[in-house]
Amino acid sequence: MKAIKVSIAQLSPKLGDKQHNLQLISDAMIKAEKDQADLIVFPELFLTGYSVGESLGQLAETEDGPGMTEVRKLCLEHGIYAAISFPEQGEGKHYYISSALIDNNGDVLGVYRKSHLFDEEKKYFTPGAEFKVIETPLGKIGMMICFDVEFPEIARSLKLQGADMIVIVNANMHPYELQHHIFSRARAMENEIPIIICNRLGIEGDLDFCGDSMVIDATGEILLQMKQAEGLKTVDMPIDQQLDPKMSYTANRRADLYSKLVERF
């Protein structure tokens, strides 16, 4: 059974302080390299902290910006793939909550822009318009960000596009910890696909981030659960495990009956 080693960095970034957060990223990659991890995943908007709406003009950057360039150098230095989230400067005055997948040579393989914006994110960010599956030697990686996990259509679409696993970068806060715990396991089970969900800790203003990062296999079994522990943990995650042939949810779909799902109400 093929498996990859996955590291989850459940940490507390400092709002607006890229240098501090880059040091956290560097320290986490050092530990992940010692654990012989293939892939390390960081939380949503980890490069800058979450509540950056009023400061996007100063903090947002492209995938080739100074902060992201430093992350890319770290991936090359430590020989590791990374999913890192940042506020992306887009075309014109558009900003996106984005997650970049960087390979062990420091190359950006793809950038996913969060498609389902939560609450006040809509005041500052533009929603993305494309679901992303990125082909890598580790497998085909589908990308999601936080609130996306609450919409089953996204994970199903990634599965139908051939994803072997789904990586979710999170900045989920109390009182919504139960939703993401249940939804991430459900997305794994209903699509028979492993899920990596990395949330953060810490407080920003009124927001108290709730952790509970997990690695979940294609049957919904939790392989790694960090609960409220701060730090980095690594686990082997199978990506071609034996599944119950009686389930085969994708094969048993009745797409001819689902037209209501794409109607506007």
UniProtKB/TrEMBL annotation:
A GO MF label: hydrolase activity, acting on carbon-nitrogen (but not peptide) bonds, in linear amides
Location of the CN hydrolase domain: 4-239
Keywords: Hydrolase
PROSITE patterns the UniProt entry points to: CN_HYDROLASE
A Pfam family hit: CN_hydrolase
Gene3D superfamilies: Carbon-nitrogen hydrolase
Superkingdom of origin organism: Bacteria
Name recorded for this polypeptide: Carbon-nitrogen hydrolase family protein
